[in-house]
Amino acid sequence: MGLLNKEITIMNFDETYFTQQKLQQFPHENINVQQLKHVNLYCEEDSITRLYSFLQKRQRRGITFIGSGNYHYVTYLLLKEMKKPFTLVLFDNHPDLSQHQGDRLLSCGSWVSYALSNNPLLKKVVIIGPTVQQAASIHNPRISVYSFKDKQTYSTTAILSAIPTDNVYISIDKDVLNTNEVQTNWDQGVMTVDMLIHYLTSILQFKKVEGVDICGEEKLSPLQAILPDYQTIILKNEKANLKILQSCLKEAAVTLKGA
């Protein structure tokens, strides 16, 4: 079990990751999509096609840094690469299940609904960490929600028992973390990085994880990035990214060693 592919891809919708110098030191492949239009929050059909084309051409697969949570819908495209029945494990302060009647645009708030409707290999979605009210109103046999609205904690046994498949894809939006740990451009949850890694490590140990993606960066302009207050934000977010990344790579190394 463990992470089956350990290569790193960084998607650049903007210049957010350019300032995370320690993250940049890891061998990785950059995908520059700054030129794409109509991709912020919602993604139009032409841009979806182009994004998917960029992803299909990449050489490094396994761990994908997406950027701001505004682009979390990229996970929907990454899930298309799954070849076996799988469970999506989503760490997020929001369930991303909104889908208004007549709304045909894929968005950062609706991509999970689209995946459930359009990906026949997706058997279950396990959402960990939401504190928003709408998480409590989800009643779907294909979705399990572990809410942290009242600061609950759950055993790794409970989480693993909700995952019916051997194969798993993990998507992490850092807005699931509290504001002492990171700063995002969305309202945030209460989870700590250590708690996130505790669950992440357990899933990596007992399941075949085919991919991991991470989003939840604060969107910063180049001018903001040089200001002291924003430097603090960058360092906090990079620290969380590095902890998550190192945990994934550690479990991948253990898996390879034991294979």
UniProtKB/TrEMBL annotation:
InterPro entries: Ureohydrolase (IPR006035), Ureohydrolase_dom_sf (IPR023696). It comes from the Bacteria. Pfam families: Arginase. Gene3D superfamilies: Ureohydrolase domain (3.40.800.10). Signal peptide: none annotated. One of its GO terms (biological process) is putrescine biosynthetic process from arginine, via agmatine. SUPFAM superfamilies: Arginase/deacetylase. GO terms for molecular function: agmatinase activity; metal ion binding. Belongs to the arginase family. This is Arginase. It comes from Heyndrickxia camelliae.
